[in-house]
């Protein structure tokens, strides 16, 4: 029976509207963790918080002056503060960066150097050599500050371990820099890195040796209510726990533990929650299901498979065929599901089929709000997860 609609709406409203943006390490992130912890406890799950160190980054604005002209600017996420003045140099290629003398100067990065966000120095899951090379060159050249000309909504440098102050300007300001090369700029940024602690939430039920894990990340970027990314995934797992609690006499008979983990740090620069959690992963995990970016209006829900045997994929797709709006897509190599797959655990990733078109526009922005959410689609994801649990229980008996 479809009876999760009101619950899903309540969880979504709490996370997106009452709490809002919940970046790792912030007070609102703690509020979201406490809220989810209480829901799981009320459902009778054995619930714990897994602590890890991080930072709470505060942004109090920035100013940029070129020849007395004010230029719109903001600190890059996790940047150090600064109050500097110096000649600025515009650089658009790795070759130009390699040849530049940036000592005592402000570097303006654009063109090829700003085509995509650079991976943070200590990001363990993916870090291309070309990104490492650019970061190493910048540290070697050691300018007073960096300013990236950003063609997208994502900041080019988002790294709390990078110790050159970094600001961001819009692409339409590039001509001002190019026509003023050799002049001085004055950059002031009020930002702060504050040592903090945060937590994953881990809820478990059942006594079997083996485990089935359902995961979603609870954190957001600093300026977004994160409805799709990822209040929707968290709300689905909270509703799943409530549904399992109502049928407790059934699911406790399964020969495996059900573990629900809300990971904290997927949208943080170095995924500390994921690194803390992965130490728990063993061969006892029979299946991991990661839910991230579900419930997009006018979109199907997609499943993709990693490290799964063919017969298992076929069984899952038989279940999907009985639930409205669920389809299969090819594997996509980003997100928390890859942590499980890297350990050889059979893994399913669930997301909205068309969400990839929103990366760089809606996702990570203030526009990622509840207007994008179809609650009926979320309800169908809960039903799908319940059916997967039932199928695993039957096949394990």
Description of the molecule:
- The protein has 397 residues and is of the alpha/beta class.
- It folds into 2 domains: 5-56 and 196-396, Zn peptidases (Aminopeptidase); 68-182, Glucose Oxidase, domain 1 (3-Layer(bba) Sandwich), CATH 3.50.30.
- The chain has helices at 5-19, 27-42, 94-99, 129-141, 174-178, 227-246, 248-251, 272-278, 310-320, 337-342, 375-396, and strands at residues 46-66, 69-71, 74-75, 82-91, 106-109, 145-150, 166-170, 184-205, 211-217, 257-263, 285-291, 301-306, 326-328, 347-352.
- Strand 5 (106-109), helix 4 and strand 6 (145-150) form a beta-alpha-beta unit.
- Helix 1 packs across helix 6 and helix 6 (227-246) packs across helix 11 (375-396).
- The two termini are 25 Å apart.
- The mean pLDDT is 93.
Determine the number of helices (DSSP H or I, runs of at least 4 residues): 11
Count the domains.
Answer: 2
Q: What is the structural class?
A: alpha/beta
- The whole-number mean of residue pLDDT values reads 93
* N-to-C series of helices and strands: HHEEEEHEHEEHEEHHEHEEHEHEH
Provide the CATH superfamily of the largest domain: Zn peptidases
Q: Indicate the overall shape.
A: elongated
At the first level of CATH, what is the class of the largest domain?
Answer: Alpha Beta
Rg from Cα: 23 Å
How large a portion of the residues is in β-strands, by DSSP E?
25-35%
How helix-rich are the residues, as a percent range?
A: 25-40%
Main β-sheet, in a few words? 14 strands, mixed
Distance between the termini: 25 Å
Indicate the CATH architecture of the largest domain: 3-Layer(aba) Sandwich
The residue ranges in which pLDDT falls below 50 over 5 or more consecutive positions are: none
CATH topology of the largest domain: Aminopeptidase
């Amino acid at each position: 029976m479809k009876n999760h609609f009101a619950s899903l709406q309540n969880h979504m409203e709490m996370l997106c509207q009452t709490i809002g943006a919940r970046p790792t390490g912030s007070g609102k992130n703690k509020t979201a963790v406490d809220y989810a912890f209480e829901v799981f406890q009320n459902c009778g799950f054995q619930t714990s918080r897994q602590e890890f160190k991080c930072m709470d980054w505060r942004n109090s604005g920035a100013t940029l002056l070129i020849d007395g002209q004010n230029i719109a600017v903001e600190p890059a996420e996790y940047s150090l503060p600064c109050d500097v003045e110096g000649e600025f140099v515009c650089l658009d290629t790795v070759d130009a960066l390699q040849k530049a003398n940036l000592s005592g100067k402000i570097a303006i990065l654009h063109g090829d150097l700003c085509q995509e966000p650079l991976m943070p120095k200590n990001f363990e899951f993916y870090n291309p050599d070309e990104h490492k090379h650019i970061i190493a060159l910048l540290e070697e050249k050691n300018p007073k500050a960096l300013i990236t000309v950003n063609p997208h909504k994502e900041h080019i440098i988002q790294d709390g371990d990078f110790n050159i102050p970094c600001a961001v300007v819009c692409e339409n300001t590039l001509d001002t820099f190019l026509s003023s090369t050799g002049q001085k700029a004055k950059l002031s940024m009020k930002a702060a890195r504050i040592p903090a602690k945060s937590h994953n939430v881990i809820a478990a039920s059942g006594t079997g040796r083996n485990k089935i894990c359902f995961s979603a990340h609870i954190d957001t970027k600093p300026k977004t209510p994160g409805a799709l990314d990822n209040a929707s995934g968290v709300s689905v797992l909270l509703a799943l726990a409530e549904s399992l609690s109502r049928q407790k006499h059934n699911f406790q008979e399964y020969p495996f533990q059900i573990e629900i983990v809300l990971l904290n740090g997927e949208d943080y620069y170095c995924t500390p929650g994921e690194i803390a959690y992965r130490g728990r992963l063993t061969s006892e995990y029979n299946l991991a299901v990661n839910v991230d970016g579900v419930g997009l209006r006018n979109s199907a829900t997609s499943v993709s498979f990693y490290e799964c045997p063919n017969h298992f994929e076929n069984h899952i797709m038989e279940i999907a065929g009985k639930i409205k709006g669920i389809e299969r897509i090819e594997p996509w190599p980003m997100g928390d599901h890859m942590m499980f797959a890297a350990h050889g655990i059979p893994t399913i990733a669930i997301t909205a089929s068309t969400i990839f078109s929103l990366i760089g526009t809606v996702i990570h922005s203030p526009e990622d709000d509840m207007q994008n959410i179809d609650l009926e689609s979320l309800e169908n994801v809960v039903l799908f997860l319940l059916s997967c649990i039932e199928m695993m229980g039957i096949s394990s008996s």
